[in-house]
Specification:
The structure is a single chain. This protein is of the alpha/beta class. The chain has 2 domains: 124 residues, Rossmann fold (3-Layer(aba) Sandwich); 146 residues, NAD(P)-binding Rossmann-like Domain (Rossmann fold). 35% of the residues lie in helices and 21% in strands. It has a 6-stranded mixed beta sheet with strand order 2-1-3-5-6-4. A 6-stranded parallel beta sheet has the order 9-8-7-10-11-12, with helices on both faces. Bound molecules: 2'-monophosphoadenosine-5'-diphosphate (ATR). 2'-monophosphoadenosine-5'-diphosphate (ATR) binds next to helix 5. The site of 2'-monophosphoadenosine-5'-diphosphate has 17 residues, from helix 5.
Length: 282
C-alpha cells in the first residue's frame, strides 16, 4: 500500500476512543500508511459526514454509539451479521459500494474462545441488558451452540421483544438451545446457575453504579464478562468476583479483536493482536 489509507472512528462521545491507537498498531505491522480521524458525529450529521468522508477518498469507518443502528440506512449492502444484529460497527468502500458490517460478535467470540479459553458449546449463558450492545453479540453466541441463553433486562418488555425478533431471524431448528427472556428480577435470574454472565448494559459507563444483582447469581460462574472497558475494574467486575465468579474480564480483548476484523475488511490484512492484548493502551 503506497497511498495513505483514510480511516476514521465516529460517534458521540468519541474522545475516549482507542481505535486510532489500535489501528495504528495494526498498520505498523505491515508498514501500511494510514490516516485515522476521530470525529464527533451525531445521527443528525451522519449522512453529511459519510458523504464527505467517502467523497474525499475515505476507505473505512468504525461506527460507535449512538450511530450503530442509524448507520445501516447509509450502506448499499448489509452483511448477514449486521442484519441479524440490526446494527453495524463498520462501513467501508469496496467496488464503489458502501458495505455495512458488524464485527462485535466476532470480536467477543474470539476473545472468549481464543484469549480467555472459554468455550460456549453446551454452556449456560446469561446476558444482562437488551440494547444495541446485546443485539450485536447474541447471534454470534447462538452460533456457538450453548445449552441455555437467557436475556435479562431492567425493562422486561425490551428483552421479550429482542428474543422474538431474533427468533424470527435466526434458524433455531436443529439447535438444542433453551432461549429465554425476562426482567432483571431475582425470580428470573436465580432459577438457573450460569457458566458465563455477560454485562451488556450501559451501567459501567456510570462510574460507581451497581446493577444490584443477587449475590447467588455468580456461584459457580466460570467467567463474568463486562463488554465495557476501563483502566480500573468496573463495579460489575468487582462485585461478581466478590460474589464467587472464578474469573472476570472487561471488554478490552473484544475491542481489539473486533478492530482486527474491521482492519481485515478494510485492507485484506489480518493483524496480530497479541501485543495489544497484553498491553492495553493508557
Ligand atoms: P447500548 O446500545 O449500549 O446497548 P442502549 O440501547 O441504550 O445502549 O441500552 C442500554 C442497556 O443498559 C439497556 O438494556 C438498559 O436497560 P433498559 O432497557 O431497561 O433501559 C440497560 N441499563 C442502563 N442503565 C441501567 C441500570 N441502571 N440498571 C439496569 N439496566 C440498565
Amino acid at each position: 500500500m503506497d497511498k495513505k489509507l483514510k480511516l476514521a472512528v465516529i460517534g458521540k462521545p468519541i474522545g475516549h476512543s482507542k481505535s486510532p491507537e489500535i489501528h495504528q498498531d495494526f498498520a505498523n505491522q505491515f508498514d501500511a500508511k494510514i490516516e485515522f480521524r476521530k470525529d464527533k458525529v451525531t445521527p443528525d450529521t451522519l449522512e453529511t459526514w459519510l458523504d464527505e468522508f467517502f467523497k474525499d477518498g475515505g476507505k473505512g469507518v468504525s461506527i460507535t454509539l449512538p450511530l450503530k443502528e442509524a448507520a445501516l440506512n447509509h450502506a448499499d449492502e448489509i452483511s448477514d451479521r449486521a442484519r441479524l444484529a440490526s446494527a453495524c460497527n463498520v462501513i467501508y468502500l469496496k467496488d464503489e459500494k458502501l458495505f455495512a458490517d458488524c464485527t462485535d460478535g466476532f470480536g467477543l467470540i474470539k476473545d472468549l474462545e481464543e484469549n480467555l479459553k472459554v468455550s460456549l458449546k453446551d454452556k449456560k449463558i446469561l446476558i444482562l441488558g437488551a440494547g444495541g450492545a446485546a443485539r450485536g453479540i447474541i447471534p454470534s453466541i447462538i452460533e456457538k451452540n450453548p445449552e441455555k441463553l437467557k436475556i435479562a433486562n431492567r425493562t422486561e418488555s425490551k428483552a421479550l421483544l429482542l428474543k422474538e425478533d431474533l427468533e424470527g431471524k435466526i434458524d433455531l431448528k436443529g439447535k438444542s438451545l433453551t432461549f429465554q427472556a425476562g426482567g432483571l428480577t431475582d425470580d428470573f435470574l436465580l432459577t438457573d446457575s450460569y457458566d458465563l454472565v455477560i454485562n451488556s448494559t450501559s451501567i459501567s459507563t456510570q462510574a460507581g453504579e451497581s446493577l444490584g444483582l443477587p449475590k447467588a447469581l455468580f456461584k459457580g460462574a466460570k467467567l463474568a464478562y463486562d463488554l465495557f472497558y476501563a483502566a480500573e475494574k468496573t463495579v460489575f467486575m468487582q462485585e461478581s468476583l466478590a460474589d464467587g465468579a472464578e474469573k472476570v474480564s472487561d471488554g478490552w480483548g473484544m475491542l481489539v479483536e473486533q478492530g482486527a476484523e474491521s482492519f481485515r475488511l478494510w485492507t485484506n490484512l489480518i493483524p496480530d493482536t497479541s501485543r495489544l492484548l497484553e498491553k492495553p493502551i493508557d
